[in-house]
Structures are given as structure tokens and as C-alpha cells.
């Protein structure tokens, strides 16, 4: 069975229930004026994104500073003196669509560009969750999302992490385990799923954060993986489950 869960909110709720995973989820709420204001006061920087979105479309970064508020969409930045003015403007961007507000993570950078990691975890033919690949994505200059459709570029995770981490291998292994825990947790709520792609942000303390979990992850990004066996295995597992 192939199953794709589109609601980022439904997936968040399912993962918040799991003790092995919940500590890696940035605080997330359905966006209202109240939740946005509260989370800006608490975290200073948040991301807002459509509940049903993809390719980084509609994702915005909102900040509260000493002299007011600002938000960024694409490369466009707008500033406001009051929360009310900010929220009015945001509502025009989001129209009537449902949005989430999520604690913003200050991503590590590669040559000045933000990057995150994509962890591919699949239900194997032996019926066990297995992390089959990890790869990195860097945002285009000045952009707030790393998605390929927004000019992002693909890099090996090792190359991105090396300047920041002493034991890259150990870090990748622990991300692999996080993928497995996430697969198990999600399958409890959504029994049909057989693969997930985790968007992992790393902050400067090197703590990983799960920004979102895709249930029909793109395998082709792994064509850029330095080890060709990685892509082959990903496709083999996908075909086993009819993808
Ligand atoms: N809380 C956050 N803090 C920092 N960066 C974030 C946060 N949420 C999202 N981002 C950035 O925006 C990108 C897009 O966000 P997200 O993955 O949630 O939506 P999407 O890409 O539109 O969905 P999909 O991956 O299904 O296409 C992330 O890959 C990441 O680079
Ligand atoms: Mg994503």
C-alpha cells in the first residue's frame, strides 16, 4: 500500500505522542494571531508554512526585533512597527489557507548559505525500518528554504558537516536512528506508509531538529550521493513497495 499524508499538522500530532521523537520537534502550532504572537515573544524567530504545502512554497520567516517585526518570503523582506500591522500583511500572503507556526531554528551555514539534511528512512523488504541515505541541501544565497525548487543545491552530508563536527560518522549514525524511531512512530498512526524523508535542521549546538517528515520523499536527490549504492538501494526498496 502506498500512502501519502499531506497534512503537516496531522503528522506533527502523531509524532508529538512519541517519547523517542517528541524531543526533536520544534514547538509547532496552528497559526492564529495569538499563537504567532506568543511564539514570537518566546523564540524571537519563527517559520510559518502552509499545512498542505510543498517545495518550500509559501514558507516565511518571521522575526521580532528591538525595533519591530519583519518577515521574509523568498528574498523579499518587509518590516512593521506593530504586531497588528505584521499580522495583517501576513494574512494577505496566506490568504485563507491554514498555516502552521513553528519555532525557527538557526541553521548551520555552508559558505554563507543555510543548510539542512534529508534523512531517507524506509520500511525494508524484511519489514524493518532502515535509514538508507542521508544527504545535505544548501539554500541559494539569501534564501530561507533549502528546497531544490527554490534554487537549493545538493551536497554530501559529510562535506557540509565536517567544518562543524568532529565525529561526523557518529552524528550520521544517530540521525539514522532518529529516522528509524520516526518511522516506527508514524506508522502507528498511519499504517500504510513505507518510507519517509525527514528534513533535519542542525543548530549551532549540533542538536538535530525535525522540521517536517515527508511521506513521499524524492529519491532522485540521492543520485548526487557519493556512494552510488545508496541510490540503488533506495530505488530497490521503493520498487518492492510498488513505487
Ligand atoms: N522551523 C524552521 N526553522 C528553520 N528553517 C525551517 C523551518 N521550517 C522550515 N525551514 C526551512 O524551509 C524549508 C521548507 O520547509 P518544509 O520542509 O517544512 O516545507 P516544504 O518543503 O514546503 O515541504 P516539502 O519538503 O514536503 O516539499 C526546510 O527545508 C528548511 O530549509
Ligand atoms: Mg521539506
UniProtKB/TrEMBL annotation:
InterPro entries (UniProt xref): YheC/D
Protein's name in the database: YheC/YheD family protein
SUPFAM superfamilies cross-referenced by the UniProt entry: Glutathione synthetase ATP-binding domain-like
Amino acid at each position: 500500500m502506498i500512502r501519502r499524508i499531506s497534512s503537516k499538522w496531522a503528522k506533527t500530532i502523531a509524532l508529538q505522542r512519541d517519547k523517542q521523537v517528541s524531543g526533536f520537534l520544534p514547538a509547532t502550532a496552528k497559526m492564529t494571531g495569538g499563537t504567532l504572537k506568543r511564539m514570537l515573544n518566546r523564540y524571537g524567530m519563527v517559520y510559518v508554512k502552509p499545512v498542505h504545502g510543498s517545495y518550500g512554497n509559501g514558507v516565511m520567516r518571521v522575526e521580532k526585533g528591538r525595533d519591530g517585526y519583519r518577515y521574509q518570503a523568498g528574498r523579499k523582506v518587509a518590516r512593521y512597527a506593530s504586531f497588528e500591522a505584521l499580522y495583517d500583511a501576513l494574512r494577505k500572503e496566506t490568504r485563507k489557507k491554514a498555516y502552521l507556526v513553528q519555532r525557527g531554528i538557526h541553521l548551520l551555514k555552508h559558505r554563507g548559505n543555510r543548510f539542512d539534511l534529508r534523512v531517507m528512512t524506509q520500511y525494508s523488504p524484511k519489514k524493518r525500518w532502515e535509514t538508507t541515505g542521508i544527504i545535505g541541501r544548501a539554500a541559494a544565497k539569501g534564501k530561507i528554504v533549502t528546497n531544490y525548487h527554490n534554487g537549493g543545491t545538493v551536497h554530501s552530508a559529510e562535506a557540509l558537516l565536517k567544518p562543524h563536527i568532529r565525529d561526523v560518522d557518529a552524528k550520521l549514525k544517530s540521525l539514522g536512528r532518529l529516522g528509524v524511531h520516526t518511522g516506527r512512530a508514524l506508522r502507528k498512526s498511519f499504517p500504510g506508509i513505507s518510507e519517509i524523508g525527514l528534513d533535519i535542521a542542525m543548530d549551532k549546538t549540533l542538536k538535530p531538529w525535525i522540521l517536517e517528515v515527508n511521506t513521499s520523499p524524492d529519491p532522485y536527490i540521492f543520485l548526487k550521493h557519493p556512494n552510488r549504492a545508496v541510490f540503488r538501494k533506495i530505488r530497490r526498496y521503493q520498487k518492492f513497495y510498488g513505487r
